[in-house]
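Appendix C: a fully annotated inverse folding record. The material below is reproduced so that readers can follow the format used throughout the book. The structure is listed first as tokens, followed by the designed sequence.
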């Protein structure tokens, strides 16, 4: 049961990353390091964290403008 829960958590996180990446592309924004945090996947029961990664100041400003 726990293994199935872990697999679902990873799958959900991967789907969320794909969704975010697609929306960012629509806005003309690329986060090169966007992905699942590898450290969060090595636990016995993975509960992945999403790494947004590093980006340029220009990208930060574009991200900040999105909610406006």
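Designed amino acids, in order:
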């Amino acid at each position: 049961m726990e293994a199935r829960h872990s697999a679902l958590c990873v799958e959900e996180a991967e789907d969320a990353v794909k969704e975010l990446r697609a929306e960012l592309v629509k806005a003309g924004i690329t986060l090169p390091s966007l992905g699942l945090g590898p450290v969060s996947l090595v636990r016995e029961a993975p509960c992945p964290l999403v790494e947004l990664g590093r980006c340029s100041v220009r990208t930060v400003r574009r991200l900040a403008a999105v909610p406006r």
